[in-house]
Amino acid sequence: MFKDRFWLSLVLAVPVVATSETIMTWFGYQLDFPGVEWVAPVLGTVIYVYGGSPFLKGAYAEVRARQPGMMLLIGMAITVGFVASWTASLGLFAVEVWWELSLLIVIMLLGHWMEMRAIGQAQSALEALAELLPDNAERVAEDGTVTSVRIDDLAVGDVVLVRPGSRVPADGTIVRGAAEVDESMITGESNPVPRGEGDRVIAASVAADGSLRVRVDAVGEDTALAGIQRLVAQAQESSSRSQVLADRAAALLFYVAVAAAAITVAVWALLGQPDAALTRSVTVLIIACPHALGLAIPLVTSISTAKSARSGILITDRLALERMRQVDVVLFDKTGTLTRGAHAVTGVTAVDGDTERVLALAAAVETDSEHPLARAIVAYAGDRGIDIPVASDFRPMTGRGVEATVQGATVAVGGPALLRERDLAPPGGLHDSVTRWQQRGAAVLHVVRDGAVVGALALEDQVRPESRAAIDALHRRGTTVAMVTGDARQVAEAVAADLGIDEVFAEVLPEDKDSVVADLQQRGHTVAMVGDGVNDAPALARADVGIAIGAGTDVAIQSAGIVLASDDPRGVVAVAHLSRSSYRKMLQNLWWAAGYNLAAIPLAAGVLAWAGFVLPMAVGAMLMSLSTIVVAVNAQFLRRVDLRPEATGGVVASGSLQDAPAAARS
């Protein structure tokens, strides 16, 4: 709308300016043809009605809402200029400002067009998210035939074929095939992740190197991508404390501008210059338009939320993002946040020193077991290329372990209960390692071959490799890091020692986690709580900033103001950097917008007229639009901020963010 009105108004303004007596005098030419005196009134009226209608409608809406602001200032200014010019054209007044009025409307249309473009580009992330989905999907019928259908025609339970290099059309579970899946547009994780049968895949992710058959379990508005779109839109529309401040300042500026215009009229009239009174007052109203002030916060909000949503960070509460810059303690839940929530082998020892042999025996016995510790042992052996022998006669022993026949020998794998039952004791060569593991709170399994203990394995909840980088980066920012967990103290202390955590709250019941947050707050700290489970929800809600990590559970997400799509705890550092960067941009824009008006209004009123400096009305309009452009351009620099988790090992530099899944509180 603004673009179309700008171009037509610009074309109409050319003859208005060209036939102006002032312009002809300035440039030393003369146009004289029948009706020349009516060119400006007629075309100026068209420009006022057509080009000025958005401002006049906006002014009317502000009057009805009793919320005077930018549009009312503009509407008053162009109406005063329009009435005065027609009065002069009819010979009832000495001053006409048709050419200034025409250029004023043209320039303001240009400024609003540029503003809408900037906001539109910031909000185009929503359209970009929608475009990630393919238009069609290949649906597999029960008889195996494949037909191409629109994704709108997919239903829950359908099986779709995803070919190598193609995008997954809907959320679902892999029922056949395996592939490296690029989920960067959803989680911000730059490296493809392996996905196989039984794993979930998200709509818009890409099967990089394999073919998949996926059973659809969510379509349309129920997909993670659709949820992201809704939450990005809600976040962009949400108000923040800075926005409230800007809105109040813009409203106050209306009264300041009207008062300044009234004083200007009175002073210039007393000086016997009614023409100057008119032009100066109109210029004051124009130049005081809180355009830049009104754009200062919303544009930063739009850019930051859209950019973060494409980087695995979803801001569902603008106040939470603003408070993040003030956080001095980050409290992490341990299991599933700093750790993977799944055990992994962290140590192997053998009586004869042959740890590979012990690992092979343990993996052989555990191959047929579905226990999480068993799967961890088999996976560990497989990752190290261990040749796992075939076991037979597998026998589970409830509460003690498992047993099987391996290469003609009876091999059992189990914990302390197994040794007590068989009246066995670990040989002295294993004692030091086993004691050290137990002191760390690790699960220790012994390998017994033909009645003799031949080795042992330690399994612990695996610490995420990114956790150390995240905590180091927070420390470099001067932030204290604490951890809360229901685990035994020795387990918690071991993890804390590995990661360099400052304070540990161990053996905390799920319902008491929020009291830990309250305790930190009572000490005078501003606390960010990071968690992923149902039992974290009260603590997330109580914290100054609640951050749900890894998409978490629905309850955790609904209690958080910020959601991280991936499991990478370095995203917390990215949130802190985003908070500081966006707040800095808001302040810069507010200072520019307010400072510009403090300097420009007196100049527009003519305080330097005694020195021969008078600010032309059209130049005032240009300055007003220029201030808006400055604010818009400054906000665009936020796009250069680099919040990728992998940036310099968790040290956030400056560049770009990435996306976010699941639902959250708005």
In terms of DSSP E residues, the strand content is: 15-25%
Secondary structure: number of strands: 22
| Helix vs. strand class | alpha+beta
Cα end-to-end separation = 31 Å
Order of strands, main sheet, comes to 10-22-21-20-11-18-19
Provide mean pLDDT, rounded.
79
**Can you count the helices?**
24
Compact description:
By secondary structure, the protein is α+β, with helices and mostly antiparallel strands.
Written description of the protein model:
The chain has 666 residues and is of the alpha+beta class. The chain is built from 24 helices and 22 strands. α5 runs antiparallel to α6 and α11 packs antiparallel against α23. It starts with a helix and ends in a 30-residue tail after the last helix. The C terminus is likely disordered.
Task: Break the fold down into its secondary structure elements and pairings.
Blueprint: H1 2-18, H2 21-27, H3 36-51, H4 53-65, H5 70-89, H6 98-131, E1 136-140, E2 146-150, E3 159-162, E4 171-177, E5 179-182, H7 184-187, E6 193-195, E7 200-201, E8 206-207, E9 212-218, H8 224-237, H9 241-270, H10 274-287, H11 291-309, E10 313-315, H12 318-324, E11 329-333, H13 334-338, E12 339-350, H14 355-366, H15 372-383, E13 391-397, E14 401-406, E15 409-414, H16 416-421, H17 428-439, E16 443-449, E17 452-463, H18 465-476, E18 480-484, H19 489-499, E19 503-505, H20 513-522, E20 527-531, H21 537-542, E21 545-548, H22 554-558, E22 562-564, H23 571-605, H24 617-636
Parallel strand pairs: 11-18, 11-20, 18-19, 20-21, 21-22
Antiparallel strand pairs: 1-2, 1-3, 3-9, 4-7, 4-9, 5-6, 5-8, 10-22, 12-17, 13-14, 14-15, 15-16, 16-17
